[in-house]
């Protein structure tokens, strides 16, 4: 395990950019530690009245609107929330001034006393994080060793729980490329699920995106462990950057010298130092979609590498049907199933959603583009869908991807808002079909995040 130090923020001037979950969690923690906290957000103050009220016990210098150089006055540390780009002029100026630039995840890793499992990838992070958490919880209950803490990019910044975490606990963190691009510390157990084009509206190139993801491995030590996908070319290529033991997971066969999980016949198997062990039938998995089988393989590999037994793995996976907004069955109406996959914020993730169904699909796709390619999405959608209802800013891009198939019997319509697309889907849906929200784009043209978009979808479906 890497040596840990106690975070010393007392008397330091900490400037935080971004007053969403990560920023406010760090602000409360740092203020309680005696730091002088300046919390800034480019949005208007009226949007943060409830948040300000919830933090009124802390002495926080709130700054809203235009973020000028004066924000950095007397600053010792600048922390960036996930949505804040390090390419901002203000961030570059801080770097020139020698101000330490960090984020809440880095600060957490610098101080947490227990082992940390970190998960990253282009898709499947949250589901895999939850699965690992369930398996680890079963193991810790059996061994009576400690508690499992789950957070990070999943929506629960673990910095807010730092004072409660003990040496015998396990912390599990979902880590995005936005968090990793700044970090100079790696978790003891680092998982890379997959690497596909994503967030190219933020990262300058695919190479930069991969470099950000790879930082989850770059600061590991010999006693640490990496868990990589054998099936994903990008993730598997990162094994050359590992320093400690490598475990793997995948549908593909596993070599005799490797440790990890694999598929044989209709079962999931484990290969460890003691040889091969059949873990469970694939049919026992309640999660829908082939991509979720990869998530299960990853979680079982991590669990086994941490000492989880077959019984722990069974208990962790039992009856788990998924996380909200991730291929979530919202409602069945007149034999039409309405599925919410609002988390599918890239064309590739929308493709995985489409592959999860063999029934005719009415697809709701759109939102805001990330600068990604849509052509493969259009071809797959044409083969799987009876209707494609595009909405939001990306609707014209989706129309272009579908251009070769216009004039076919497939229905294609464009709408400015999700609500309008959903209303038409309700008109045309037939018994035996699936209505699927798999946007392929972010939510920021109409909603604050994918959760708000998914909740709106569920609310509208509930009113049908």
User: Segments where pLDDT lies below 50 for 5+ residues?
Assistant: 1-5
Beta-strand residue fraction? 15-25%
Compute the CA-based radius of gyration.
Answer: 23 Å
Remind me, CATH topology of the largest domain?
A: UDP-N-acetylmuramoyl-L-alanine:D-glutamate ligase
The CATH class of the largest domain is identified as Alpha Beta
Give the strand order, joined by hyphens, for the main sheet: 7-8-6-9-10-11-12-13-14
Distance between the termini: 54 Å
Short account of what is shown:
The chain has 464 residues and is of the alpha/beta class.
Topology record:
Blueprint: E1 13-17, H1 21-32, E2 36-41, H2 49-54, E3 60-64, E4 77-80, H3 89-96, E5 100-102, H4 104-111, E6 115-120, H5 125-143, E7 148-152, E8 170-174, H6 177-180, E9 189-192, H7 206-218, E10 225-229, H8 233-237, E11 245-249, E12 259-264, E13 267-272, E14 275-281, H9 290-305, H10 310-317, E15 328-333, E16 336-340, H11 347-354, E17 361-366, H12 375-384, E18 385-391, H13 395-401, E19 411-415, H14 418-428, E20 434-440, H15 450-462
Parallel strand pairs: 1-2, 1-4, 2-3, 4-5, 6-8, 6-9, 7-8, 9-10, 10-11, 11-12, 16-20, 17-18, 17-20, 18-19
Antiparallel strand pairs: 12-13, 13-14, 15-16
Explained architecture:
Strand 9 (189-192), helix 7 and strand 10 (225-229) form a beta-alpha-beta unit. The protein starts with 12 loop residues before the first strand and ends with a helix. It is 32% helix and 23% strand. The chain has 15 helices and 20 strands. A nine-stranded mixed beta sheet has the order 7-8-6-9-10-11-12-13-14, sandwiched between helices. The chain has a six-stranded mixed beta sheet with strand order 15-16-20-17-18-19, with helices on both faces. It is α/β, with parallel strands linked by helices. It has three domains: 13-102, NAD(P)-binding Rossmann-like Domain (Rossmann fold, 3-Layer(aba) Sandwich), CATH 3.40.50; 106-317, 3-Layer(aba) Sandwich (UDP-N-acetylmuramoyl-L-alanine:D-glutamate ligase); 328-462, Protein-Tyrosine Phosphatase, Chain A (Alpha-Beta Complex). Helix 5 (125-143) packs parallel to helix 9, helix 9 runs antiparallel to helix 10 and helix 11 (347-354) packs parallel to helix 12.
């Amino acid at each position: 395990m890497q040596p840990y130090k106690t975070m010393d923020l007392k008397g330091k001037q900490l400037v935080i950019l971004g007053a969403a979950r990560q920023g406010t969690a760090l602000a409360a923690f740092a203020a309680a530690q005696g730091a002088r906290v300046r919390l800034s957000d480019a949005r208007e103050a009226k949007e943060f009245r409830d948040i300000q009220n919830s933090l009124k016990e802390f002495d926080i210098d709130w700054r809203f609107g235009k973020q000028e150089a004066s924000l950095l006055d007397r600053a010792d540390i600048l922390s960036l929330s996930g949505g804040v780009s390090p390419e901002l002029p203000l961030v570059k100026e801080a770097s020139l001034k020698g101000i330490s630039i960090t984020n809440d995840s880095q600060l957490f890793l610098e101080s947490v006393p227990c082992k940390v499992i970190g998960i990253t990838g282009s898709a499947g992070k949250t589901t895999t994080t939850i699965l690992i958490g369930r398996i680890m919880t079963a193991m810790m209950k059996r061994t009576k060793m400690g508690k499992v803490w789950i957070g990070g990019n999943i929506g629960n910044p673990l910095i807010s729980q730092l004072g409660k975490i003990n040496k015998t606990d396990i912390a599990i963190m979902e880590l995005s490329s936005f968090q990793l691009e700044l970090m100079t510390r790696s978790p003891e157990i680092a998982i890379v699920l997959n690497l596909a084009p994503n967030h190219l509206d933020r990262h300058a190139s695919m190479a930069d995106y991969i470099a950000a993801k790879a930082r989850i491995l770059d600061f590991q030590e010999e006693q640490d462990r990496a868990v990589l996908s054998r099936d994903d070319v990008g993730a598997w290529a990162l094994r050359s950057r590992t320093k400690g033991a490598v475990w793997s997971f995948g549908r593909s066969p596993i070599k005799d010298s490797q440790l990890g999980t694999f598929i044989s016949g209709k079962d999931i198997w484990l290969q460890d130092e003691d040889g091969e062990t059949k873990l469970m039938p694939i049919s026992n998995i309640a999660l829908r979609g082939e991509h979720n089988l990869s998530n299960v393989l990853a979680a079982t590999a991590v669990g086994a590498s941490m000492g989880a037994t077959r019984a722990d793995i069974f208990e962790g996976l039992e009856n788990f049907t998924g996380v909200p907004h991730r291929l979530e069955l919202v409602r069945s109406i007149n034999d039409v199933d309405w599925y919410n996959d609002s988390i599918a914020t890239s064309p590739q993730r929308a493709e995985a959603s489409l592959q999860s169904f063999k029934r005719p699909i009415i697809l709701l796709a759109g939102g805001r583009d990330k600068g990604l390619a849509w052509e493969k999405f259009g071809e797959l959608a044409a083969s799987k869908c009876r209707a494609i209802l595009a909405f939001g800013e990306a609707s014209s891009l989706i129309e272009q991807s579908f251009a070769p198939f216009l004039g076919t019997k497939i229905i294609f319509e464009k709408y400015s808002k999700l609500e309008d697309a959903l209303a038409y889907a309700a008109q045309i849906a037939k018994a035996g079909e699936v209505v699927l929200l798999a946007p392929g784009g972010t939510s920021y043209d109409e909603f604050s995040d994918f959760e708000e978009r998914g909740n709106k979808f569920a609310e509208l479906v509930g009113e049908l």
